[in-house]
Amino acid sequence: MIEVKILGTGCASCKATQKLVEQVLAARGVAARIEKVEDIASILRYGVMSTPGVVIDGRVVHAGGVPGRAQVEQWLAR
Predict the structure, then answer these.
(1) Most buried of 8, 58, 63, 73 (most Cβ within 10 A)?
(2) What is the pTM of this model?
(3) Cα distances (angstroms) measured from residue 69 to each of 20, 39, 41, 43, 72
(4) Tell me, what CATH number does 60's domain have?
(5) How many domains does the chain have?
């Protein structure tokens, strides 16, 4: 099971990113635990200055703007 964190304060882009990640996980049948991180101090600890951010298994894979579906699929290809 992979661990995915969506970093963001709840803006529309953050919600869209979370929804997209959930859709790709479901389509690929990947078991994941998804956590939404909204606390600014926690987000900054990852070095993310622009949200939304995506962290997979402790590694920041994205920051700023809604990623494309192909990009998300690439992160999850294992």
Answers:
(1) 8
(2) 0.93
(3) 7, 26, 28, 23, 5
(4) 3.40.30.10
(5) 1
